[in-house]
Amino acid sequence: MTDGAGREPAGSHRSAESGPLRTALGREVDAGWVRERIYATLTMLAVVVALAAEHVTALEAAVSVLATAVGVWLTGLVAEEQAYRAAHGRLAGKDELRRMLHVTSPLLNSAVGPLVMVGVSAVGLLALSTALYVSAGVDALSLFGWSYYSGMRMGAGIAASSVAGLINIGVGAGIIVVKLLAH
Predict the structure, then answer these.
(1) Which end of the chain is more exposed for a tag (fewer CB within 10 A), N or C?
(2) Considering the entire predicted model, what is its pTM?
(3) What is d(CA 88, CA 16) in angstroms, rounded to the nearest whole number?
């Protein structure tokens, strides 16, 4: 929606399909958010599968999931700030910090699904290992979804985008194997 002069109202959000009206910085922020979301999903997927293979209580699983998400988020936030200082020679200002918090927020969001499923288990609706495997399945499907979406955005078509999604699930499976071997 635009005003009479063809401008967007203040505070409106244009999609990535907006062409030249979409800034390069906006696309980089979006790419950073998606990158962190995929990284967080892969990390949490490995943690959740490892927890499902162990004999832990719901409380221990919840603490582990939450500690992983907060630890990875703090690491990402510190890395963003240090990279900003190195690139710009100064501390990040309010707007830059807001961008950093937005870009790194998926690292915290990655805990929501597993925590909900641990909660479902805690009230007796599912066994804990089943709940954690359901959470892992949802994470694997989201990996497929991001790859499929990216492939379609690039014009790869349904078949190639589906193959990319399956490859991303394979990468996730490889990470899980490494995590389980480390335990």
Answers:
(1) N
(2) 0.75
(3) 26
| CA–CA distances in Å: residue 55 to residues 59, 61, 97, 131 | 12, 10, 40, 13
Residues 6+ apart with CB under 8 A from 52: 128, 129, 132, 133, 136
The terminus-to-terminus CA distance of the chain in angstroms comes to 54
Using left for φ > 0, alpha for ψ between -120 and 50, and beta otherwise, residue 14 falls in: beta
